[in-house]
Amino acid sequence: MTFPSPAADFAEGRLSLDEHLIENKDATFFFRMSGGTLAGFGIHDGDLLVVDRAVEPTDLNVVVAVIDGEFLIRQICYAPEGVRLRTDSPGQSDIVIGAGQELTVWGVVRHSIHRV
Question: What is the pTM of this model?
Fold first, then answer.
């Protein structure tokens, strides 16, 4: 004897994560987070990050930044005194972009996917 599943009443078609997570297909990339510097922002070691290069970064976005050739994932803060890249790790300090440093915002993190 088999019993019908109560979930059958709520079944939908196939779910495409692309439809829910990707806005600009040609400009979206995935990064794997390494380290716990952004755990307070909900981004954890090993998370899969959905990064959109077509999105213009705004204050407090989490971004993939390139400083002097090095990739970093940080929260960007715009202030009158300049740009600050924030971390949530007590062991690391924020980075203030100084004169002579080259900063490129490579993309904006749109989603963080992690195991629960």
Answer: 0.82
